[in-house]
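Re: export button greyed out
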Amino acid sequence: MDFGSANVTERNQLPPALAISTVIFALRSDGGRQALWMPLVRRIREPHLGKWALPGGPLSGRESLQDAAARNLNETTGLAPRYLEQLYAFGGLDRAATQRLVSIVYWALVQPGEADLARESENVKWFPADALPDLAFDHNTIVEYALWRLRNKMEYGPIAFSFLGESFTLAQVRGVYEAVLGRELDPANFRRHLRATPDIVPTDTFQQGGRHRPPRLYRYTGAASPDPGFPRRTP
Amino acid sequence: MDFGSANVTERNQLPPALAISTVIFALRSDGGRQALWMPLVRRIREPHLGKWALPGGPLSGRESLQDAAARNLNETTGLAPRYLEQLYAFGGLDRAATQRLVSIVYWALVQPGEADLARESENVKWFPADALPDLAFDHNTIVEYALWRLRNKMEYGPIAFSFLGESFTLAQVRGVYEAVLGRELDPANFRRHLRATPDIVPTDTFQQGGRHRPPRLYRYTGAASPDPGFPRRTP
DNA sequence: CCAAAAGTGTTAAAATTACACCCATGC
DNA sequence: GCATGGGTGTAATTTTAACACTTTTGG
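Workaround output, generated via the alternate export path:
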C-alpha cells in the first residue's frame, strides 16, 4: 500500500499504523573516558530519506512487542540485549506527514563485545549519544526521553551491569555510572555501596595486566529485571 | 468489520487492532478510613460478554493517545482527570481470543467530586481496588501493574494532591498516603516533610466544622506533572 | 623508589525515626 | 474538664559525604 498521496481527509480515516522502534545504548571507551554510543540506521525511503533514524519497523502479527524489539535490535547490532524494556508509546497526530503513526518504543542496553561496533555499514552507524545529528521524525525527542530514563534508572535500579560482561571490577562499575550520570563519584564511598549489595559477589580472581595493583573481579547474581519485572504475564 | 469468525491463519495476517484503555483511581472515604476505588464498565458484547472491564475503546484517527484516554475517562466518570499518564502498552499475542490486540493503557487520578460516584448505571460501577471481580481479558494484571506504579510514584512524585481539591489539610494529604501505601505514617514527621516542600503553601484559612482544633488549609502550587513532564513535544 | 589505582578508616553533616509533649476546639 | 486531632520539640539512629591514609602492583 502506498499512502504517500493520501490527502488529509483520507488520512484521518485510515487506521493508525503501528511500528516498533528501539533506542540502543552501549558504552564505548572514548580514549580513556567512557561514553554512551548508539547505533542508528539510515532511511532508505521517503519520508526523511537519507536521514538517520532509530532502528525499527512495522509490528508483524506473529510477534509480541518485546520479541519484535529484540529481533530488530539483533538485526541492527548483531547483539542480544542484556536489558530490554518498554520506553513509551508515541502517538502524536503529526509524527509522520503521510500517515497516522503510533510507535511503541523500547530501550536496550548492550555490552560492547567483539564484533558489534565493527558491524557498521553504509546504512548502520554508531553515534555518541550526546552529539546526534538531526534525526528523522521525532526521534531526537525520543532519544532524549530514553536518556532521561536511563539516567534516572541508573540511580536506583541494578542497570549498570547490563553494560558489562560476566565479571568486572568495581572501578568498571563506577566508570559506567560516571559515564551515564556525567559526574565523578567518590571511589571509596561507591565501593562501600556496592559491597553492601548482596547481589554483587566477589570472585577469587583478579584482573591482571593492569599497570597497577590488580583489582578483584566481581559477579552480579541478580536478575537484570526491568521494573520489578512487573508486567509479567501478558505483555 | 467482524473478525469474530477469523481462524488462526487469517488472524495472524490481520494488522493488530489498537485500543486505548484507562485505569481510573479515586479515593473514597469508606466509613472513616479512606480507600482506593475505580470505575469499571460491563462488557456488552463478546468476547467476555457481561464481565467487568477497564473503560476503553478503539483509537480514532483524529485524537492523540492522551486525548483519547481523557475523553474515555470523561465519558465514564463525568470528571476531568487531575492526573493522566501513560502506563504501558500491552501487546501479548494471546490477549484476545479473536484478534491480535494492542492496548495502550493510561492511568488517571480523579478527585471524588459531587456527581461522580453517583454516576453509576447498569453498565458502570465503582469497585474497591483491592477487591475486584474477575475482569475481562488481562485487565486484572493491568490493574495490578497500575497499582504498583501508583504506590511507587506516591513515594517520590507529587501525586497525592491529584486526589484532593484546591485546598486541603495536611492530615488529608497524609490520609491519601496512608490509603495508597497501606500503612500508617507518623503525623509529626509527615507534617515536617510537607512543610519543607516549597510547592505546598499555607493559606490564611482554617477548616471549620470539625469537632477539634481547626487545621490550617494548604494549597499545592506545583504542576501535576507526569514524569518530569518529559515526553514533551510529540506524544 | 615513584606513580597510580586498589582498598580501608574516620569523622562531620544531614536525613530518618521514634516518641514526649503542648495547643485549641466541640462537647 | 476531657477527649481528640493539630501542631512543636528533641534526641537516637542511620545514611550520606568528604577526605586522609595504607596497600600493591608496574616501571
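DSSP finds five helices and ten strands in chain B. The button fix ships in the next patch.
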